[in-house]
Amino acid sequence: MKTRVPIFITAFVGIFMILKFFVVTPWVSAVADELVQWGVITLAFAIILGVLNLAKINLKAVVERKTDWPYKAILLFGMVFMMSVGGFQWHLDMRAEEALSALTALEASGAAPAAVAAAVAASGEAQARAATNIFNFAFTRIYTPLSATMYSLLAFYVASAAFRAFRAKNLHATLLLVAAVLVMIGRVPVGGLLQVDLSDGTIWRPLVWIQDWLMTWPNAAGQRAIQMGAAIGMIATGLRVIFGIERPYLKG
Amino acid sequence: MDTAWLVDLAGVWLTVIFTLAIYSFLYRDNPFYKAAEHLYVGVAAGYTFYLAFRNTIFPNLVQHLFTGVHKINAGDGAGWQMQWRWGALVLGLLVLARLIPKVSWISRWPMALVVGAFAGLNLLGYAEANLADQIAGTMVPLFGRSNYAPYELLPLLPSLGQQASQPSTLNHLVLVVGVISVLTYFFFSRERSKATNALGTVGIWFVMITFGATYGSIVLARISLLIGRVYDLMDYNQPQYGYPFVVGMIGIVAVLAVWRLKYFKGDKVNDGTPGGGEGDEG
Amino acid sequence: MINQEPTSRMQKFLTMFVALDRRWIFSAVAILTVIFMMLDFNLPIQPSPQAEGMYKTINSVQPGDVVHFSIDYGPSSAAELWPQHLCILRDLMRRGARVVCSSLWADGPPTIEKGFNIVVAELAEEGIKRERGVDYVNLGFKAGDRVAIASLGASFKRTFPTDYSGRPTASLPIMQGWDNYNDVKLLITIGVGDPGAVEYVQQAQSRYRVTMVAGVTAVISPQLYPYYQSGNLQGFLGGLAGAAEYEKMANTPGRATKGMNVQSAIHVLIVLLVLLGNLAQFSLRMMARR
Predict the structure, then answer these.
(1) What is the distance between the alpha carbons of residues C228 and A223, in angstroms, rounded to a whole number?
(2) Mean pLDDT of the region C42-47
(3) CA angle C62, C64, C69 (to 5 degrees)
(4) What is the pLDDT of residue B281?
(5) pLDDT band at B276; cut points 50, 70, 90
(6) Subunits touching A (CB < 8 Å, at least 3 pairs)?
(7) N or C: chain C end with fewer CB closer than 10 Å?
(8) Contact C259, B224 (CB under 8 A)
(9) pLDDT at position A116, please?
């Protein structure tokens, strides 16, 4: 039960994903499509699991007054706040939908103009309430700045890391450094300020041109080889997983 | 004063305070950063929970099953086929078994489904987009006519007057040699001969240029994120809001100074980058 | 690193510079950003061939064409991707395409709403009316990563039984007459990572041979050059620089164009620091050898 069933499930699902591509029989597609839906729903449950797990760990820390428990209480507060605000938004959306379908039904039944006008007003009000409310506030004024600033911190670290790490110690490090510097300058407008007039009257922007060449040819070649290597690895792993030789789901 | 204006004012101040609280990490790890960080994790988790439930589980599972039952009651045979979705409900609930240690092993079943689906889909997707298409893309003419419209004769060298991406014999040679040499470097790292050694060395050069180009792009990306934040801070720094950026900045520096003098113990500088990073800054 | 005790004053200074405290660099970055943000000038921008390909593809869309516009980013990378999102959406809506937005990232849907609200209001001012559910739709978020993309290949309506706000998609006028990638004229993704452009190429473009372009962060953009060369992508935009190129071609200079000044300044600073750091290291090595 503990190992055989998962191996069977993986093989079954994996083979149907591949079969759908090669076999055009309707029932194969139907089974594969239903399995894909199951996958989508299972992954949504995995998100739910992750959040519940986070709640469990932090709740335990708060209850047991572990170190830094006040921060964990803030975390839990944020979580519950956002869930409730989301639930409220859902409620408002449902109200707006009800008002709209009531309006449509009224219009179809040919009711009195006054009744229709009232329904239009009610629907409009419900729509407006659903569009601007506390959920929008929480998303744009709390979640957005926190999330955006958290990632933008890396701007400072990337600058200082470049200063520390980019030292031309040997040929390989020099190649890396030169490519990075050329991309940094050639990719932004300041690189286009350096111009050379060619004999045929056209303007050559050496830094931009070299950056473009570097990206389109050597970089594309390197990236392509990396992607092909990854593909071969992925195909091998895929086959090993489907045939039950590798069992990643048994870990943990 | 009307409510909309007050909400706007509160929103602007919250935005600025949260932004500055997180930037205070640049000085060193401190309670304001920690509070903001934990709030972020909580809010993000709560939000994702809400949307995963509302946009996926509810329409694709709950509503789907209800619609199926309604159809059966109305005498529509299509409703029966929709009942297959109960399987997804069972698997979904089994995922949650992970929370109960005694039966957590059963969560392997739904995970097996996900692993199988990923394996099957990746196998096809990688084979087609990353292998077949890329091999085809590397089969470029080295001499003669280009395989792109307008099928002109390939020049030997790239022309400086034209865009650098214009095909030429040299450019195509760089592409072909680059791909083959990097692959050689990957696949012949163990069994080496003179030929593979030489080609592998060229491969490393290409890999280094590729990584350098990627690093340059990472710098571009990260600086853009900073620009976005500073845009917001400067936009909101208006007299009608009471200059939140300037006031917030002075406030946070003052509070940090007090915290440093009164409560801060030890002199360990936190050298780690904050959570959520991709760890790609080396 | 240099092991010997620094002797001369020059050596002392160079050793200090080589091991400069990161917070000096942080301060320099912050100050330069604020200063260049306040300066009002625009550097000339040269669109790359990839951005030109993107612009041409988007502007060949005909009225009524179904465009799947996948918004796979949230506020964390909005600084880079929102300018791209906005100018592409403007072009699509103005051209009268049927714009079908969805997201594989949970924090995408509110961004989709924001985009529609802005562009619909702009067009309304010009007298062009675009209606929700008829000309555009926000399908919301779907969990499932590439499994969700595979599901879209089978059926959009089964993958998204309702839109973001819970309206059944089967009854929406915009969703009539098509249901999978065979009838989608153009696939656009604005993506920050995985799932994003690469996953769409693998699961949708290469399988159904749908015309595709992508807007990505600068981090992802080097990975897309091979797909562009092999014809999987007709074009792509890389980060804020890509957005500035698009703004230039669409002749609507905005935040990205202005951001390029700051971007240029910081890049020059970093490059100078790198060059000076190397020079200092090199001089130290020379001095130590003597």
Answers:
(1) 12
(2) 88
(3) 85
(4) 32
(5) very low
(6) B, C
(7) C
(8) yes
(9) 85
Asked if residue B157 has pLDDT above 80, the reply is yes
Check if C255 contacts B (Cβ < 8 Å).
Answer: yes
- Substitution target in C206, C207, C221 with the highest count of B β-carbons within 10 Å is C206
The tokens of B121 are what? 């889909």
CB neighbour class for C206 (10 Å; exposed up to 12, middle 13-18, buried from 19): buried
A192 min Cα distance to partner chain B (Å): 13
Distances (CA, A) of B199 to A152, B174, B177, B194: 40, 13, 9, 9
**CB–CB of B219 and A235 under 8 A?**
no
CATH number of C49-252: 3.40.50.720
For residue B277, name the pLDDT band (cuts at 50, 70, 90).
Answer: very low
Compute the average pLDDT of residues B248-274: 72
d(CA C91, CA A122): 34
For the stretch C108-149, pLDDT in tens is: 999 999 999 999 999 999 999 999 999 999 999 999 999 999
C141: left (phi > 0), else alpha (psi -120 to 50), else beta? beta
Q: Exposed, middle or buried, C52 (CB in 10 Å: 0-12/13-18/19+)?
A: middle
- Give domain limits for chain C: 9-42+260-289, 49-252
CB contact under 8 A, B175 and A184: no
Answer whether C271 sits within 8 Å of A205, measured CB to CB.
no
The dihedral region occupied by C226, where left means phi > 0, alpha psi between -120 and 50, and beta the remainder, is alpha
Token pair of A177 as six digits: 């450094």
Domain residue ranges in chain A? 155-250
Q: Is residue B103 a contact partner of residue B97, using CB atoms and an 8 Å limit?
A: yes
Q: What are phi and psi of B79, to 5 degrees?
A: -60, -30
pTM for this prediction: 0.92
- Whole-angstrom distance, CA of residue A48 vs CA of residue A66: 25
Mean local confidence (pLDDT), A116-123: 86
Q: How many residue pairs from chains A and C have C-beta atoms closer than 8 A?
A: 161
Chain B interface, best mutation among A153, A196, A199, by max B CB count within 10 A: A153
* Cα dist from B173 to A71, A167, C259, whole Å: 58, 30, 37
Both tokens of A101, joined, read: 């379908």
Q: How far apart are CA C157 and CA A175, in angstroms?
A: 50
Could you write out the DSSP letters of every residue in C192-227?
SSSSSHHHHIIIIIHHH---EEEEE-TTTHHHHHHH
Q: Phi first, then psi: what are they for B229, rounded to 5°? A: -65, -45
β-bridge partners, C186: C67
Q: What angle do CA A192, A195, A199 make, to 5 degrees?
A: 140
Q: Is the N-terminal amide bond of B150 cis, ω within 30° of 0?
A: yes
B255-265 confidence digits (pLDDT tens): 888 888 887 66
**What pLDDT is recorded for position B282?**
28
**Residues across chain C:** 290
Cβ of B205 and A46 within 8 Å? no
Take residue A202 and report the two structure tokens written for it. Answer: 């056209």
Mark yes or no for CB contact A159/C148 under 8 Å: no
Question: How many C-alpha atoms does B133 have within 13 Å on its Cβ side?
Answer: 24
The structure tokens listed for C253 are: 């200079």
DSSP helix/strand/coil, A52? helix
Neighbours of chain C (3+ CB pairs under 8 A): A, B
* Geometric angle at alpha carbon B239, from B234 and C86, rounded to 5°: 40
Pairwise CA distance, residues B133 & C233, whole Å: 11
Which tens digit of pLDDT belongs to each residue from A204-237?
999 999 999 999 999 999 999 999 999 999 999 9
Q: Note whether C218 contacts B51, CB cutoff 8 Å.
A: no
User: What integer best gives the mean pLDDT of chain A?
Assistant: 91
